[in-house]
Fold:
Amino acid sequence: MRLPLTAGRLLGLAILFLTLAAPARAGVFDPTAFTLDNGLQVVVVENDRAPVVSHMVFYKVGSADEEKGKSGIAHFLEHLMFKGTDTVAPGEFSAIIKRIGGQENAFTTYDYTGYYQNVAKQHLGRMMALEADRMANLKLPADQIAPELEVVREERRSRIDNDPSSLHGEQVNAATYLAYPYRIPIIGWEDEVAALTRADAEAFYRTWYAPNNAVLVVAGDVTPDEVRRLAEDTYGKIPARAVPDRTALRGGEPEQLAARRVEGTHPRIDQPSWSRRWLAPGQVWGDSTETPALEVAAEILGGGTTSRLYRALVVEQAKAVYAGAGYSPSGLGPQTFAVYASPRADVSVEDLEDAAEAEIGRLLRDGVTAEEVDAAVTRMTRGAVFSRDDSLAPARVFGTELAAGGTVADVEEWPERIGAVTPDDVLAALRKVLVDRRSVTSVLRPEPRS
Amino acid sequence: MRSLLRLAVIVLVLLPGSAFALDIQPVTSPGGVHAWLVEDHRNPILALTFSFRGGESVDPEGKEGRARMVSGLLDEGAGNLDSQAFQKALADNSITLRFDSRSDRFSGRLVTLTETRETATDLLRLALTKPRFDPEPVERIRAQISASLRRDLQSPQTIAGRTWWATSFPGHPYGRSGDGTLDSIEAVTAADLHAFTDAVLAREDLMIGAVGDISAEDLGTLLDQVFGGLPEASEAPTVADVTPVHGGETIVVDMEIPQSVVVFGQGGIDREDPDWYTANLLNRVMAGGFGSRLMEEIREKRGLVYGVWAYLLPLEHAPMMMGGLASQNARVAEAVDLVRREWARMAEAGPTQAELDDARTYLLGSFPLSLTDSGGIASILVSLQENERPIDYLDRLQEIYGGITLEDARRVAAKLYQAKELTVVVAGQPIGIEPARPSSGG
Structure:
């Protein structure tokens, strides 16, 4: 079944694309979406550019769904998913992929866990059979657990413990959320990771890994009919199971009433950095109608070298080496709108902070111009044309969107929503989000020399 | 002029194991600029990738980082456009223009929509032929590179890497980091930057790959517009061929971190060597991801690392074989010991027939996966030319790799893997590793 689009929406898209002089084509990727009887959501994006496919499965469970005291279990289970099933030996799935020249990997985020294989198209059926097998029949041999836990601890040392910026980032994150589980690092706190067991992994797997809690996306040189047939033969055989309501389990985030500041120093920091973030609505959390305006706002304020912050702080005032802003609505929980900068050698963090505040103050006072919005919208929506260029990339786009609470229409109609943003929308959204008492400021600087 | 465009035969590249064909057309512009083109009109996008001879290895002593500065400054003002005007033209037209320096080459990448192609062509021409290097952007980019150096110089990866290269290539440009030092970045002047572009940006030894929504004829016109104004002869200084110093040393750089970071390496093999392909298969067996010998022994069986890798690095003037890992201070000695043991085992017995076959099917099967986007294909077109591969190279892969026997693999393994020559640098506070030549600081 094609994605349902109303005539009005089609017209809106056509007008938008005409103004962009892009090809008259509705939507961004024109996917085919359907759901199997057991609840598995499936999205197929055809592209015959190369004789290859990307096969991805996303589970709607991430680190923010872990039980208290078990931080890191979502990520540890992701590693253990390569340890075989009742019929496949540890490492055998990987060995099969390697022999056919495929690529594979997996990743864990706050909101979802994904697995993928990129392979020549004739191998898709086999990949689906093997991935479906580990959706239902994971087996964790006792002798595989301890070494893999050590691997995960080494991963934590590489990503976090060896890197002062990442260590500081964990502190800032924990200060950004009082209650919502985004405060806990995806890879887990070191002492809790060290104590994880096989039983923890099995319990997490049994609770969350079910076809009705997963999204299958296939992009590349394949037809929707073929994917449907293969999916019904493989994933379709797995019965649905009741899965907890993760939104309820995660709880909420209380209103922030006082500004927070996290200041750190480290002997291995030579280049100071500054940032400020505010909790913001996302595609699920809060007023999601504000998200397009916030995306446009972030582009105008801090997207690239012609943005306001870069121009003011880096070029004109020569106070910063870099400056920018970031916002993404993707995710189930409260998102953040952030600005960041790092000072030049002769500039103090305080001086830079004043300059950034002045720029933000000007924005909140005067708003943005229609020309700024037009230029930002054009850049952003043109990005949709570039994103069609990679025949495998759409798999990740749809998997991410659907596993984090979005819909196929959210992706396809994104250019339309961005195109409808006005300067007033931008100012209203910014005034609502960029409130001092709801800010978290981070400073990381060198240790004072004695 | 357009009718003068010379078009050679279209070469059909058949990928192994499939009926898929990548049409690579050699294009020569009316003005004599050569490029390889893959025409594809699915999306209104053009990706253009190119590289010149001369990179970080031609940075003068004391001005290391010059090539990197040029790469950061070519899109910061050219012709009558100052830095912000140039950047605005790129942003408003959604044009991606990036430059990059490597050891021996300087490269660039342009991605544009068809509707903005003329503007993109003009901006690229200006960047290559009329860079301004105005004081404001020069000081700004200098400050950015210095800031990023201040971060990198505290990172164990950077420190271990720099120590490794300085130890192995004393007195040669390869021994100095192309990223420069805080002092060398300060020393580079606008005149130095102009000297680099004047010498390096030339049509001699220029490799170009184009992919996307453009005909051969239109590409010919574009090539002349962009590159036609460059001088014919490259004046990039010649860098001497060199043999690395390999004493099999172990060097420890003391850093207070929980996990030691290790860089190891030895001499490798030339791309022109007939045994290059066999070496490529051997490297897959040794370090090609899950199931490879290093991953099995060091990660899967013992949980000593998250990642361990090794790769052939065929530098122009010294082919190398490099690798790395990171492991907690208490157990890193065991991990390094296993690398040496696997090196010796490979030299002694080579791979098994099954390992060799798997490596071969991997290499042949994986190629189409790099052909899924315009930019990726354009990069491949340039790297094939840089490596002096024939235009039908992809079509010959089956033939090239199919003929490699176990005997070949054993012979090349015995020659290539020299555990005694492996120089190892450890940054951290490793327990049980005795430095063969202690060193302090990076």
